[in-house]
Amino acid sequence: MDDPGIEDDAPSTLVAPLAGRLDKALAAATDAFSRSRLAALVSAGAVRRANGALVTDPGLKVKPGEAFLLTPPPPAPADPEPEPIPLSVAFEDAEVIVVDKPAGMVVHPAPGAERGTLVAALLHHCGASLSGVGGVARPGIVHRIDKDTSGLLVVAKTDAAHAALSAQFAAHAVERRYLALVEGVPDRADPRLAGLPAVRFEGPTLVIDAPIARHRSDRKKMAVVAGGRRAVTRARVLERLPGATLLACELETGRTHQIRVHLAHVGHPLVGDPVYGRARPGPGAAFPRQALHAATLGFRHPADGRHVRFESPTPPDMADLLAAYREIGPTSP
Question: Rounded to whole angstroms, how far apart are CA atoms 317 and 203?
Fold first, then answer.
């Protein structure tokens, strides 16, 4: 029997060589997976008909010659290993460590990004002194920021600290403020904002209260979707620049890509955002990442409940970008 040579995460077309149950027909079409594994993949939504229709019943009756597209999930990454990667540590004690992550660093291992992660750097820096609640792949990790977003994260060194911090995040009690450089000027004069029901102004603050879920057609993206998880972002203008605006964004919730999705939704994507932005001329045209920096992080310390607050300066690449915009012409507060 010819084996199509299926690789994890690589879509493959399988043609049923016989009539009967779908899982049995697929097993007859490839040696790459057992019948039980194929049945599980079908149930998990990894199989579609040639026309794109999703198939989730392993017992579906099929005919010889019917074609199906199989897209297995990516393999689980190997357990992370310590790597001597320099860390910028804003604070550390026996319970927590607050780090200032550079842009370009993934927080934890994922398919295609197994090395050079923040977890690998933490394992080298902290050794065994990290909470195990997050599992082997995510020791100490309580929250994340995107690979190409820079700034502050708090990591738990004990299980008790992990539980206390997780409870604060769940209760939306953690202060998180981001610096975001966006295209255009999102203010009351913008007619696009007036027509969006999920947008309002509270004094000078733009409040975006729009649910977020996985994009319906592009599974690598998030989007504002009715019925998604509630997401609230508050944005305040710090500086108006020629063709762009520097915002201070505060999160009430912490959904994947939340700030990026919300600002793109209101017509003001982040400068440099390769997923939710657009190519435009100007100083940001060559900026290699989304112009987003986690500048402030505040929480109650797990050990004694005192409020602690940390600030991260604007990273050099964003500082240079802001300077380039300011050179174009006058700015205003």
Answer: 31
In a domain, 212, yes or no: yes
Range of the structural domain that residue 214 is part of: 172-328
Whole-angstrom Cα distance, residue 83 to residue 115?
A: 8
pLDDT in tens, 92-119: 999 999 999 999 999 987 666 667 899 9
Q: Is 25 inside any structural domain?
A: yes
- Chain Cα centroid distance, residue 302: 26
Instruction: Report how far residue 106's alpha carbon sits from residue 87's, in angstroms, rounded to the nearest whole number.
Output: 13
Backbone torsion region of residue 134, taken as left when φ is above 0, otherwise alpha when ψ lies between -120 and 50, otherwise beta: alpha
User: Would 225 be classed as within a structural domain?
Assistant: yes
Q: Which amino acid is at 280?
A: R
Q: Which helix (H) or strand (E) holds 167?
A: helix 159-170
Catalytic positions, written as ranges: 146
Task: Please check whether residue 119 is in contact with residue 101, taking contact to mean a CB–CB distance below 8 angstroms.
Answer: no
Q: Are residues 203 and 318 in the same domain?
A: yes
Burial of 126 (0-12, 13-18, 19+ CB in 10 A): middle
Which of helix, strand or coil describes residue 122? helix
**Do residues 127 and 193 both lie within one domain?**
no
| CA dihedral sign of residues 87, 90, 94, 96 | negative
Residue pair 273/288 in contact (Cβ under 8 Å)? The answer is no
Q: How far, in Å, CA of 145 to CA of 149, rounded?
A: 6
Question: Does residue 16 contact residue 26 with C-beta atoms inside 8 Å?
Answer: yes
Q: What CATH number is given to the structural domain containing 298?
A: 3.30.2350.10
Q: What percent of the chain has pLDDT over 90?
A: 65
pLDDT at residue 174 in the model: 96
User: How many domains does the chain fold into?
Assistant: 3
Q: Is position 4 within any domain?
A: no
Q: Which tens digit of pLDDT belongs to each residue from 235-293?
A: 999 999 999 999 999 999 989 999 999 999 999 999 999 999 987 888 988 999 999 99
Domain boundary among 118, 142, 171: 171
